[in-house]
Each structure stands twice: as structure tokens, then as C-alpha cells.
Amino acid sequence: MSLRGKVTTLRDVAIRAGVSTMTVSKVLRGAGTISEETRRRVKQAAEELGYLPNNLAGSLSSRKSRMVAVIIPSISDIVFSEVLSGINSTLRPQGLQTFIGESLFDPATETELIRAMLSFRPAGILLNGGIARSADAAKLLARRNCPAIQLWDCDRRALDFSAGPSHEEAGRLVANHFLERGMRRIAYVGAELDKDLCARRRYLALKSSLAAAGIDLITVTCEERPRQAVTGRYLTEQLLRDHPGIEAVHFLNDAMALGGLSHLHEAGFPVPERISVVGFNGTSLANAVRTRLTTIDVPRAEIGEKAAQALLRMIGGEGVPDAWQARLKLVQGNTTIALGRPQGA
Amino acid sequence: MSLRGKVTTLRDVAIRAGVSTMTVSKVLRGAGTISEETRRRVKQAAEELGYLPNNLAGSLSSRKSRMVAVIIPSISDIVFSEVLSGINSTLRPQGLQTFIGESLFDPATETELIRAMLSFRPAGILLNGGIARSADAAKLLARRNCPAIQLWDCDRRALDFSAGPSHEEAGRLVANHFLERGMRRIAYVGAELDKDLCARRRYLALKSSLAAAGIDLITVTCEERPRQAVTGRYLTEQLLRDHPGIEAVHFLNDAMALGGLSHLHEAGFPVPERISVVGFNGTSLANAVRTRLTTIDVPRAEIGEKAAQALLRMIGGEGVPDAWQARLKLVQGNTTIALGRPQGA
DNA sequence: TAAAGGGATGTTATCGATAACAGCGAAGCT
DNA sequence: AGCTTCGCTGTTATCGATAACATCCCTTTA
Q1: Is residue A341 scored above 70 in pLDDT?
Q2: Is the CB of A20 under 7 A from strand C?
Q3: If DSSP states are collapsed to H, E and C, what string results for chain B?
Q4: Which GO terms describe its molecular function (chains A, B) (predicted)?
Q5: A33 belongs to a structural domain
Q6: B120 lies within 8 A of chain A by CB
């Protein structure tokens, strides 16, 4: 266990500085009125002993915490890193530390994470939207004693606040993009739609928008494979085999779109002349390859910032702001035909 | 603050079940000997009240914790997700929950994270190697009361245990790969080498191995840009401008290599006929595009598993195992010329 | 000069759990 | 019967901090 003897406590520091534990506590928190001389002595004693406060005791006693829990589906999903960076850049200056948990889209794992995080009585909890929440998780959240915020999804308002795009709008944007260009034979390629409910809503919105135009969306998905480039490539191969006459494809995300593009190139399908391709996210990936992917840009950092700002407001007792809807922008690349007039929302 | 009234405590459950708090505590932890009937009553009471244990109090009292702290440089770095999944798959079955912190390669941020994590008295702490550790961080770690493990780097043994590849070996593998193919005009493309000391060691090993063969490595790096595809593309452009006669390039990671490849294609440099390219990591990215990148495969999940196993052993008081060195494998793709004889270590 | 005010520090109770041990009745043993 | 043993449950002290209030002493002020 490598327990290096006894850990130093407030008491140890107090003895060394020749004051009471209360005085030490006040000095280290910058609370109360303590003379400059005592301050110095205490700080020096703490420094010499290498004192590290015990948050378990501190938070238990004060019923306050500087920890913010963030639970995301997947840390490898590039999407999330920028949301997190928006969160951190807003919370860190306020002295709040974010602790991250990864659920891998598994409701049971998410529930355990929520339980573990909440049992530390955090100052707030941020959860990704679009994951099927277990009944246990809902119960845990209902009895929480901290603000809860939903990320990446403004549509469902189960929690105190939510910041994210409307995934329905995203689906409609893609549908319009294709329809404006006269596409009729349209396909969707995705994965894990049973787990990622946000992606599923985008898909359904695309499907129903097309249906309204009399078009039957061709769907190629796979629940077992990851939402990554390899899968996009694999499913595109499958799509071309079954529906060689396809004119346009929307992918669940940019990574899958890139995988798909690589197969389209190899298979000799010119993009966008023969097939149009649209991704989702506007990640830097989209600009890293030969083709600039047409995609939907989501203001990821801003989502994190808005969520964090709302949290700060709630912690400060300033009430619960309304949900924030992120602006989406369809970014024209060279994987769909550029029209003369401006694109986007 | 949305404090939903008083949070239920052990006492509340005890009163409702008509027993003492101690009995409730024992039932919920599965400790002690409690009759089946009491067990049932307590569990039902806890369930009805939606009781959520307060870990602050529990861990404070028992001086035990089920939390494991993991601090990584960047969650967007695909590399880490598989290491983490190896960690989780080993720790979760044991009832340990991992909490992640992201340092973004910033020593000050890392120090604050270490402080925040340790102040919760975790069961263990896992840190990524290859980041310049501040003196404060070192001091914090020296006085920790839990096992500490270094990930992603087996070379430096500052902590109790370390699991990772030898980055020197990686550099040498690449050097040999180029030398075996008769390359003389060799370049390295990387970013943020001032922050990522592991990458820097790979680079230095490559450089010195080549120097031993009388070759002067051409280096193109940039400290301000991210270690991603866009940067690989940008720096490759710069490299070709300054050194059009180059024969081989090693990139810091696969993402940068893919960005570089896209520019090489556009600029009309056939790969591998005119220029050979080698990446690092063996991520799934490497197989998602037209070209199968020659790269060095690192057993990421296994690194996580070994680290977690070592942690479990140390928590169990079974002593400190020796550092574990991950096997590296140079995977021949089609971005370098295949030789007749087998490749690799 | 006595009362009031305020700066600096200490005392006590408490946060919500667990460790350690103490009780207490029923069963087993001689 | 009397004693031990064991199963079950409760009591007390404690973990390491903080909140709230109490002191103490030195200035002001009338």
C-alpha cells in the first residue's frame, strides 16, 4: 500500500506553528482575520510539513465542494475534447476542478459513474445527453443536491440546464442540403444508433425530412462497430454493393465520413461528381485530408462554456437559466456541389 | 443551488428500518453478520428513501477509497482511450472507479489536478509519463499515501510502477527501418516536443541512431500547434518547400502522418516510391484511409491492464512489481517499401 | 475612566460515516 | 444447571476538517 507513515493533518501544522487548528484552517483558506505574522508562520509550517488538505474532511464539514463531475460517453470521441476544454477554461479560474468519467454509452456504467461521482457530493454534475438513462440513474439524479447540466443536446430538458445543438435541426439541414442539389437517392451511414440517441435523432430528422419530399432514405448502420473511420469505410463498401446508384451519403460523424471517402476514392466513385458526402461536427479532421468535407459545424467549445457559465450561476444561487441552443452551421466543403447562393441555416 | 431539501443519511435509513445506524452501515457494505430479515428491512428502507452513501464521510472514517485517479495529458489524443479502457476493464470488476483529469501537457494544471485528486485520498493514482513534472507536483507525490503508477513510459521510474514502451526503442526501430531501405535524406515532423517528453525521446533516439550512421536528421517541429492531422499537413508543406529532396519522414504520431500524407499526395510526391512515411501508434486511423500507414504498434490496452493489475496488487499489499515494458512492433504498411525479409523488432 | 468596538485567536459541536468493542439472548457442551 | 460459544445488534470514539460562537486584549470615544 506504500503508506508513507502518518499523513500530516491540520493538527500537525497547528502544533508546529504554535497555534490552534482553527487558525491554520483559516489561514489556508484565506478566511477570517489573521495577523500577517501568524499567517506567515502557519504557511511556513504547512510548507515544511508538505501539508495536503483532506478534502474528504473539508467538504464533509463545510458541505461545499470544488469538484465538478463530468460524465461523457467516450473520451476517444474527438467531439468531446473541445466541449471539455470550454468547460475547463470557464471553471478552472473559479477554482473548480473537473473530474471526468467515461461511460462508453453503457447505461449501467453511466449509472455507476453517476453514483460514484455524486457520492463525493460535487459542486455540480455535467452529463452528456443522448444516452439511454437507466431508471436507477434517473432516481440518483432526482435526489442529487447539486446542479445538473446536460451537454450536447438542447432538446431534452431532463436536468436543470442544457447546452447543445438541436439534433433535429442538424438532420433537417442535411436533408435540405441534399434536396437543394436535386439529390433523390440518398443514404445514411452510422453506427451504434441504439446507444447514441443524439445521433439517432439526427438520423430520424433526416429521414422524415426526406420522406416529406417523397424520398425513402437508405440506411446502413451497424450497432456493434465503433463510430470511427474504419467502420465508415466498411459500411460504405457495403452500401455501394447493395445500392450502387446512390447519389448522396450522410455520415454519423466526420470520422466515419473520412473512412467512407477513402473507400469511395478507391472504388472509383468521384466525389462530389457522382456521390455527395456530408459529415457531422466540423472537427479539424475535416480539413486534414485532400478533400474538405462538407459537414455541420457545432460550436463545441462554446457549448462547454455555456454549460459551465450556467453551472457557476447556479452555484452562486443566481437561479436556473434557460436551456441554450447552439447555432449549427452547414459548412460547404468540396464533397458536395457548391451552389451559387450562400449555404447554411 | 437546487438543494432539494435535506439529503438522506444513514440515520434516516436507520430510523425508518427501526435499527441503529451501525446496522445499516453493515448491511449496505455487506459487512458483519446481520440476519436475513433485518437485511431485507434495511435494504428496503434505503431503497425507499433513495439513500446515496456519502463517500466523504465513509472514506474519511475508514481511510479507504474506491476511487482511482488517472491524469492524462489530453483526452482527445486517441492513444489514451485504449489505455484507459484497459485500466477500466481491470479495475471496474474490483469495484474501483476511475476519475480522469486532463492536464493538456501543462505542468501547472497537472500539479493542480494531482493536488485535487490526492486531496480525495484515492486508492491509487495513475499518471502519464513524459510530461515535465513541476517541483510542487513531485513534492505532492512524495507525500502521497497511495500507490502511484506511471503510464505510457517505462523508461523513467519516478513512481512505484510504470507500464509503457521504451520510447528510445521506438526511435531506433524507425531509424533501422529507414536505414535498411537505404534512405539517407530523412526528416522528422512533430509538434509540442517541449511538452511531450516521450515523443521527444523517440525523436532524440531516432536522431542519434541516424547520427551513428552518419546521417543528419532534418527536423521540422512547431511548439504551438496541436499534434494533429492539420499540423502534420502544414509542417509537411513546409518540409517539402525547404527540403524537396527528402526521401523519408517519420511523424510524431499517426494523425500527423495522415495529414502529411494528404499533402504529399496533393503535391504529387508518390508514397512510398519517392518518399517513405512512418507514423507512431498503430491506431485504427492508420487503416482507415487509402494508404495503410507504416507505423509502430503500441499495445495500448495491455499497458492499461498491466498498470491496473499492478495497482491491484499494491492495494492488496502484495508488494511492488517491477516496471513493465510494452513490446513494440513496427507494422509494415504501404507507405514504406516492403523488403523481402520480415520486419519488426 | 468606563463602556464600546473591533481585531486576533481559541473552544465546542458537527458533518456522515466506520472501527472496535460491548451487550445480550439462544444454543451447545459437559 | 452452569459455562462457553456464537449470532446478532448497539454504543462509543474517531476520522480531519469547518461553522458558529466565545474570548481576550488593545483601541477608541464620550
Answers
A1: no
A2: yes
A3: CCCCCCCCCHHHHHHHHCCCHHHHHHHHHCCCCCCHHHHHHHHHHHHHHCCCCCHHHHHHHHCCCCEEEEEECCCCCHHHHHHHHHHHHHHHHHCCEEEEEECCCCHHHHHHHHHHHHCCCCCEEEEECCECCCHHHHHHHHCCCCCEEEECCCCCCCCCEEEECCHHHHHHHHHHHHHHCCCCCEEEEEECCCCEHHHHHHHHHHHHHHHHCCCCCEEEEECCCCCCHHHHHHHHHHHHHHCCCCCEEEECCHHHHHHHHHHHHHCCCCCCCCCEEECCECCHHHHCCCCCCEEEECCHHHHHHHHHHHHHHHHCCCCCCCCEECCCEEECCCCCCCCCCCCCC
A4: DNA-binding transcription factor activity; transcription cis-regulatory region binding
A5: yes
A6: yes
CATH number of the domain at B17, please.
Answer: 1.10.260.40
Interatomic distance B143 CA / C21 C1' (Å): 33
User: Are residue B48 and residue B111 in the same domain, yes or no?
Assistant: no
Give me the number of domains chain B comprises: 3
Q: From the candidates A100, A150, A189, which should be mutated to test the interface with B, based on the most B CB atoms within 10 A?
A: A100
What domain range includes position A23?
10-53
The residue of chain A with its CA nearest to that of B319 is A1
pLDDT at B321 (0 to 100)? 86
pLDDT in tens, B262-315: 899 889 999 999 999 999 987 766 666 667 899 999 999 999 999 999 999 999
Q: What's the pLDDT at B137?
A: 93
Q: Which of A100, A112, A142 sits opposite B99 (nearest CB)?
A: A100
Residue of B nearest to A232 (CA): B288
- Residue to mutate among A12, A61, A64, A99, with most B CBs inside 10 A, is A99
Same domain? For B179 and B221 the reply is yes
